Amino acid sequence: ALPIFHCKTLIAVAALALPLGVFAQDKAKHPDLTGVWTARGLSATIFSKGDPLMTDWAKTQYAKAKPSFGPKMVTLPETDDPVYKCFPPGVPRVYFHPFPMQFIEAPKMMLMFFEYDHTMRRIYMDGRKHNEDIEATWMGDSIGRWDGDTLVVETTGMNDKSWIDRLGHPHSEQLKVTEKFKKTTADNMQIDVTLEDPKAYKEPFTVQFNMQLKPNWEIAEQNCIDNSNLDTLEPGVKK
């Protein structure tokens, strides 16, 4: 028989190790998405088959937008694209910047760390519901779960100040984005993105794109303010 002191010590050590052990077992049940990923065939818009079916409200907002890409393209000094004022890009707009992102898995959440302006998304994986008591934010409130080998993420609670692409397509605070991340090969991740926004679009729509794993890449420092026209951000500010 073990001495009482040794028994208590083993119990204490086991209790401390339990969260890590449980996390290791859970992680073994689903694909490993951790690592640095970059978009394949980056585009300025998620709409490969023309504009979605916009409501009158969305058409009005879209007509007023002055993007720096697409058929309504204006020069950078003329654009009113929020990201050129260093505001967070929102979801799914964050994917349309030519910078990689990194998945980091933790016991109760999945982190998406984007090189673009060091933007961070926290995807809660602990079974919680969306927080209805917080104000709308740029990146929204994201909760996730595993459906077999697919990570399913639902994001709500976004403000209406961002665009959903670089062409100026708007969204309202009713926007709900559902993303499904699935590794189709060792170095390819397919992302299916469904957008629902009854105020802006007459029906939900789904788009798909792919990202490539870059095992030897690291996320570098990239700050929006270093690459913006400071004169457009705040009166009196000079480069």
What report would you give on this structure?
The chain is α+β, with helices and mostly antiparallel strands and 239 residues long. 16% of the residues lie in helices and 26% in strands. It has a 9-stranded mixed barrel with strand order 1-2-3-4-5-6-7-8-9. Strand 8 and strand 9 (205-213) form a beta hairpin. It is globular. Residues 2-25 and 232-239 have low confidence and may be disordered.
Helix- and strand-based class?
Answer: alpha+beta
Q: Kindly report the average pLDDT value.
A: 85
Order the strands across the largest sheet as they lie in space: 1-2-3-4-5-6-7-8-9
What is the first-to-last residue Cα distance?
75 Å
Q: Bin the strand percentage.
A: 25-35%
Multimeric organization: single chain
Number of strands: 9
Unreliable sequence segments: 2-25, 232-239
Helical fraction: 10-25%
The helix count comes to 3
The major sheet is characterized as:
9 strands, mixed, barrel
**Run of helices and strands:** HEHEEEEEEEEH
Shape: globular
Radius of gyration: 21 Å
Short recap of the structure:
By secondary structure, this protein is an alpha+beta fold. Helices cover 16% and strands 26% of the residues. It starts with a helix and ends in a 12-residue tail after the last helix.
Tags for this entry?
239 residues; 9 strands; 3 helices; globular
Outline the secondary-structure elements.
Blueprint: H1 4-28, E1 35-39, H2 56-64, E2 101-105, E3 109-114, E4 120-124, E5 141-147, E6 150-156, E7 176-185, E8 188-196, E9 205-213, H3 224-227
Parallel strand pairs: 4-5
Antiparallel strand pairs: 1-2, 1-9, 2-3, 3-4, 5-6, 6-7, 7-8, 8-9
